[in-house]
Specification:
Number of domains: 5
CATH topology of the largest domain: BirA Bifunctional Protein, domain 2
Strand content: 25-35%
Number of strands: 32
Strand order of the largest sheet: 18-21-22-28-27-26-25
Length: about 675
């Protein structure tokens, strides 16, 4: 909303410079986009304050902020604004020889419709009026149209002028559009209407899209002699829906879809007629016609004094509360413990007591409200243990060289389909922003694969991405998962050796590392996932429950996203919700750092070549004392001196006690026990 400060001074006696006016109003909650030449302030008005999309609305705020009287140019001699009440003027059968009928066939979409006739002489507007419109960003057209735009900016209520001679039957009717009905709007476009849209029609066809834009067939032109001025109230949701469906936005729709004052249409008509006379453009013919079958009055709310103190944390003087609310146009009456406040119909944002307190706070000054923490009335709940698990997952994957990605929850249906479960379709959105965001993602993998493709297009060869987030399906609802994707090098290039490309076992190794960190006994089996290459994929299970999959992404998905030919992308995804059920997070056990030294012993045994090293480790762990704290293989030999069908396995064992220093005798006893078990169970011979 561009505000010409000289126009504002017609309403409020302000002597402050423009910068101070802008600063003060910004302190009252109005964001200033900038101050332009010729004393124009550009305000960003939020959608909940349609009353301030006008000079009068901002003048009321300024008058309250600077504590000066407000002057409304259309106030009656007693000083009361004619917006203070609703009225219904009976429709006359004849007005000075001109006849027009006004009716409402859709009162649910148009609760009030008013019209007035005026004889006009079309011509240019006076310089002062044209200059004010230009400063506000509105192009002057002719004196009649300029007056309607002037009233829109001044009062905030849109008007529209019809050429009376072009109205069939000299009739105006607010009705729903008929099936197949079309209209050519003032922008020259022919638009198809549907029965959910409200139109203003004459005796035969639609002449305006109600609240959005007028029709070209009845527009005011140089030969117009009598106009019918429209001033109405339209249901905001109807205007918003119509504007969106037609792809048509106007200054009128911007105000109607946010909510105008239902009790101001006749005031706007009278102001427009007064301006037409003032600039010599015309004169009103008869009284306005006002069809208002169900008048609405102000809403009464109770404002409690202690509630102000409780919400703001600071007391506000009673006189200051009354001054602020009265200045903003509320009728205030003192009652025990507070006030009875009458909310004018222009304030569509004030619906409850808290809204009134916000009005007081805005003009009292947010800088006067103290900042402090509220008192704790209960013990804070323990953090969700799943948060710790997610943090651990992030730490493990970051340590494995992956970078965390955050991808869109809404994706293209074609991208989602290959990753949906068997026989499932992705969950569609009722009102998607575009086809690229039409469904909820059934998996985290589509976003990660897109991330890999984006990096490869920027010539980044080695890409490792992971994400922790939610996926969605009709059968299971929202599920929390972790997924990763990798391509490029499995082992980074080094001067001591060449680069090795990533393979299936690298991806499996990352999954195994996650399993170790989460204390999960993972198992791998053949996978039937449609997005993975058969034979190079595995289902990941815990016990009998499948918790995810790992493998090579099918080349068709890589190519569809524009990845270079031959790029292999290995992916994995695990269901964290399923893992939480299978292995609930236990309390973390914290141990002190060891105080006593350790003893290291090496052992080499000759065993059958069909015996896996895992079985050897399991045997050692079972028979060794608790002082065995570390074990790893460091050599495997097969050749001269080793019998056919056998091999030599060397292990390094570390012993340490937490309460004493171990002796050689302690360790020797443990080594003899271990060797005896290996010889008995596996036929091992010590080298």
């Amino acid at each position: 909303m561009k505000l010409l400060v000289s126009w504002l001074r017609d309403f409020v006696d302000l002597r402050q410079p423009v910068a101070e006016v802008a600063s003060t109003l910004s302190m009252c909650g109005f964001e200033v986009a900038g101050i332009e030449a010729d004393e124009v302030i550009d305000f960003e008005i939020t959608a909940n304050r349609p009353d301030c999309l006008s000079v009068a609305g901002l003048a009321r705020e300024a008058a309250t902020a600077f504590d000066v009287p407000l002057r409304l140019p259309w106030a009656d001699p007693a000083g009361h604004s004619v917006t203070s009440g609703a009225r219904a003027v009976p429709t006359p059968s004849r007005i000075d020889g001109e006849r027009i009928s006004v009716s409402i066939e859709a009162p649910d979409l148009c609760p009030r419709y008013a019209a007035a006739l005026a004889e006009v002489t079309i011509g240019p507007s006076p310089d002062w009026l044209a200059a004010r419109l230009t400063a506000a960003g509105v192009r002057p057209i002719n004196n009649v149209v300029d007056v309607t735009n002037y009233v829109l900016l001044e009062i905030g209520h849109p008007l529209h002028a019809f050429d009376l001679e072009r109205l069939d039957g000299r009739r105006l009717c607010a009705r729903r559009a008929r099936p197949g009905e079309r209209i050519r709007t003032l922008d020259g476009e022919a638009r198809a209407l549907d029965p959910e849209m409200l139109v203003i029609a004459d005796g035969s066809s639609a002449q305006a899209v109600a609240g959005v834009m007028g029709g070209a067939a009845s527009e005011v032109w140089s030969g117009t002699r009598v106009i019918a001025l429209e001033s109405a109230y339209f249901k905001p949701a109807s205007v918003r829906r119509t504007s969106k469906r037609l792809g048509l936005k106007s200054e009128a729709s911007t105000r109607f879809e946010r909510g105008t004052d239902i009790n101001v249409p006749v005031v706007a008509l009278e102001r427009a007629c007064s301006l037409l006379e003032r600039i010599g453009a015309g004169r009103p013919v008869g009284a306005p016609i006002d069809v208002y079958p169900a008048p609405r009055g102000p809403v009464d709310l109770t404002l409690r004094r202690e509630r102000i103190d409780w919400l703001l944390g600071v007391g506000v003087d009673d006189g200051e509360v009354a001054r602020i609310l009265t200045g903003l146009g509320f009728a205030v009456t003192g009652v025990p413990g507070g006030w009875r406040v009458s909310v004018p119909t222009r304030r569509v944002d004030v619906l409850r007591e808290a809204d009134l307190i916000e009005e007081v706070a805005r003009h009292f000054g947010y800088d006067k409200v103290p900042s402090h923490f509220p008192p704790l009335r209960a013990v804070a709940p323990r953090p969700d243990p799943r948060m710790a698990r997610k943090a651990l997952v992030r730490h493990v994957l970051a340590a494995a060289g992956f970078s965390e990605a955050v991808s869109w929850t809404f994706i293209d249906a074609a991208d989602a389909a290959p990753f949906a479960g068997p026989g499932e379709a992705p969950v569609p959105l009722a009102y998607p922003l575009s086809e690229k965001f039409a469904v909820l993602r059934p998996s985290l993998l589509p976003g990660l694969v897109d991330g890999v493709a984006h990096n490869r297009r920027h010539q980044i060869r080695d890409v490792r991405l992971f994400e922790v987030g939610a996926s969605f399906s009709a059968a299971e609802g929202e599920r929390h998962r972790v997924a990763f994707a990798l391509t490029g090098a499995g082992v980074m290039e080094h001067w001591g050796g060449g680069m090795r490309p990533a393979d299936f076992f690298d991806a499996v190794g990352v999954v195994e590392r996650l399993g170790e960190a989460l204390a999960l006994p993972l198992r791998f089996a053949d996978s039937t996932a449609s997005c993975l290459v058969p034979g190079r994929a595995a289902a990941v299970s815990v016990g009998e429950t499948t918790v995810g999959a790992v493998g090579l992404l099918v080349p068709a998905e890589s190519e569809r996203r524009g990845l270079p030919g031959g790029d292999e992308i290995f992916v994995a995804e695990l269901d964290l919700d399923a893992i939480d059920r299978l292995a609930p997070i236990a309390d973390t056990e914290v141990r002190a750092l060891p105080r006593f030294p350790s003893i290291v012993r090496d052992i080499s045994v000759v065993i059958d070549e069909r015996l896996r090293s895992q079985q050897v480790r399991e045997t050692i762990q079972r028979v060794a004392p608790a002082t065995l704290v570390g074990m790893r293989e460091f050599d495997r030999y097969k050749g001269q001196g080793i019998p056919e069908g056998r091999y030599s396995l060397s292990l390094r064992l570390t012993f340490r006690a937490s309460d004493r220093t171990l002796t050689d005798a302690d360790v020797q006893e443990a080594m003899e026990r271990i060797m005896a078990a290996l010889a008995t169970e596996h036929g091992a011979i010590q080298r």
